[in-house]
Fold this protein.
Amino acid sequence: MSRATAETVAAWATAAGIGLLVFMIGWLIGQRIADLIWDRPTGPIVALGTASLVGAIMTVMAGRRLSRAA
């Protein structure tokens, strides 16, 4: 494994961690807000879907940025 490949893998692993962190925080905050707007089970489902989408987008954005820097 070359050094560039190792750094790219590390960059994407870090990006996955960032995406999971954004997912967890987004889900917690989003669930509180969505629970005020919609009744159950709609609120938690909307919060989960939104947090999943935002977490995936942040993973890709961070992965691209970090892998370019590597």
